[in-house]
């Protein structure tokens, strides 16, 4: 099952800058403060993704309170989950301009505000705006920096680090399900959301822990990455010809932009020096001008990097495997989200409420999900194992479980399938690793933003679609079958594109030999 570099087209855009000269690695890369970043990301996953996985509890409360259809009510949860991920590309712009720390702190405040305002909802449409949009955007502003920072701080143990940090989703789903159920029983769902909003303010603390690496530290990481590639033999890359044609993403525009920026700042500094003999008021005005100029330079530089990644001549979309990865993401995430939103209703239909109250099926998914992420991360870090192959095998297992779940009508059968869903969905911890291998660390924020945006579209339409199918057929079976088949289409795209990428250079070399 091992895949060599030539098997899949991966583009290490940043590695062309790395030299062969040995550089002493920064102690914070793969160690030191890097583990604080893992802790911060772990807590973010508990508070954001864990809470969203527990929304089935609130969904039942909203159905009773507002007496709306299942399809319409499911839009509240879907908007929150979907917008959290859909805003990824725009959050990438925020990260390029403001950095991960500032973006995450602002997002924490916005997320808490969304929860608190939702406590005063008078109808479902009010929740669309407060919980779906406001809390969703805030969640996205914290979630993406949490993933990107782990990718920046780790090289040798990336899969393990991402696996440990993303286990927060499983822990969160288990803890938040129990917490929200208790709060709703004791205080009602409105007070439960108010309390959850107060708890969400801890996201600001998590953001404060995201200490940025200096450009020097990042360059050292690129060198370490370049030197370790030959030993690991598990990263996958484009052919030499593709890399030459694409080049480093946005390298030339950045050089021109930096030259223009230095010219602007230099002119401002020259005016400031020349005006030292002037009045104090003029000096104060010059300092304000200099500050505004520096801020403008930062914004222009961040926007240039963001724009070149998406729309430049050598944009991310020229990587065919990355495009296939996006298509897969459009279908994949809804297959994981639908069980969390609708399992409580399915259990109620099968008269399994008593057994489910003892040990909820969603908690089984959450607990096994924790072990799945860690185990799959450890396996992927082994030198003889391909991360790509582990990723594909986990996807095949998950889609099989989604197609099998409607056939199970006993608690034991549902519990076994849910356990397999939880373990196989541990591949989520490999998504940042695969994305970084595709585009490099420098473009991870923008690239992963696109991937989670596609996941967000999947999460946005998945649960309402399942609710709509139920309203028509009075069964959830067809919802799982259709979601599973669409998921399979996405997996097929992942399998086809690497084969095409591998075949094209060989065909061209044959033509050259004939000439």
Automatic annotation (TrEMBL):
Q: Which PANTHER family match?
A: MONOCARBOXYLATE TRANSPORTER, MONOCARBOXYLATE TRANSPORTER 14
GO CC annotation, single: membrane
Where is the protein found, in the record's own terms? Answer: Membrane
Q: Which Gene3D superfamilies match?
A: MFS general substrate transporter like domains (1.20.1250.20)
Q: How does it sit in the membrane?
A: Multi-pass membrane protein
Which GO molecular function entries does the Swiss-Prot or TrEMBL record give?
A: monocarboxylic acid transmembrane transporter activity
Question: What is the designated name of this protein?
Answer: MOT14 protein
- Ranges for domain Major facilitator superfamily (MFS) profile come to 37-502
* Keyword Disulfide bond in annotation: no
Where does the chain cross the membrane?
33-55, 75-95, 102-120, 126-148, 160-180, 192-210, 321-341, 361-379, 386-405, 411-434, 446-466, 478-496
- PROSITE patterns according to UniProt: MFS (PS50850)
Q: Which Pfam families match?
A: MFS_1
Q: Recite the UniProt keywords alphabetically.
A: Membrane, Transmembrane, Transmembrane helix
Asked if the record carries the keyword Membrane, the reply is yes
Q: Cross-referenced InterPro entries, in alphabetical order?
A: MFS, MFS_dom, MFS_trans_sf, Proton-linked_MCT
Gene symbol?
Slc16a14
